[in-house]
Amino acid sequence: MSKAILLFGHGARNREYAEPFHRIKAAIQLREPDAKIEIGFLELQRPTFEEAIDALVRHGATDVRIVPIFFAPGRHVLKDLPERAALALDRYPDLNVEVADAVGMVPSVVDAMADYALGK
Amino acid sequence: MSKAILLFGHGARNREYAEPFHRIKAAIQLREPDAKIEIGFLELQRPTFEEAIDALVRHGATDVRIVPIFFAPGRHVLKDLPERAALALDRYPDLNVEVADAVGMVPSVVDAMADYALGK
Fold it and tell me: Rounded to two decimals, what is the model's pTM?
């Protein structure tokens, strides 16, 4: 079965906020052309988290990995996201959901930022 | 001359917001033990951007690379940061300042996030 990934973001009023999400999505798609990938925002912007879940299920996803595109695991990641994920499971009882760590806490991502900071 | 790096962030009221900054700083320090690294926030949190600049200069920095720890280059990166950097140059006319791209736009960082999203 192909992978289903939801890139979870806060959302913002300015359009360029979504840009890195589209870059990450494109980089994933390059690696796994069959992966189903949706971007879902908590607020202020669409598609919403719920719309992203709906789209993944509609495309046949049974297992979704939710990846918080946040530097730190604050309230939005630790409280809002699990609440939204629980509501999604109410709507789709057969769906399996895995919530990954906030990307800013992931060693390989931190290493890439450190290398870049050093101009490498 | 050793490198001087300023990790620039927005700042937030919650304490955990600073966590990824400290992780990035530690990862840089591991790679280059002599690097001078300061964290500086735009608002809501200390040290401020100005305090970070002052600390770097006090430690002998003549060239500072400012790295925006932001996913997207929005107003804070494109407008607020250059303004603050210009004010710092007024205070330290001999300082050389380089503003790097927002980390969320850097291909190696995007790649690391994509790999992580795929569970690699």
Answer: 0.95
Q: Any chain A CB within 8 A of the CB of B117?
A: yes
Q: Is the Cβ–Cβ distance between A117 and B67 less than 8 Å? A: yes
Question: Which fold would CATH assign to domain A4-117?
Answer: Rossmann fold (3.40.50)
* Residue written as token pair 């994509």: B114
Active site residues of B: 10
Amino acid at B100: A
| Residue spans per domain, chain B | 4-117
Q: What is the pLDDT of residues B52-77, one digit of tens each?
A: 999 999 999 999 999 999 999 889 99
Angle between helices A107-117 and B19-31 (to 10 degrees): 60
Q: Testing the interface with B: which of A69, A109, A115, A120 to mutate, by most B Cβ within 10 A?
A: A109
As a three-state string, the secondary structure of A45-99 is CCCEHHHHHHHHHHCCCCEEEEEECCCCCCHHHHHHHHHHHHHHHHHCCCCEEEE
Q: Going edge to edge, which strands form the sheet with A96-99?
A: A36-41, A4-9, A63-68, A96-99
Contact: A74, B12; criterion CB under 8 Å:
yes
* Contact present, B76 and B41 (Cβ < 8 Å): no
Phi, psi of A7 (to 5 degrees): -85, 110
The CA-CA-CA angle for residues B62, B63, B68, to 5°, reads 140
ipTM over 0.90: yes
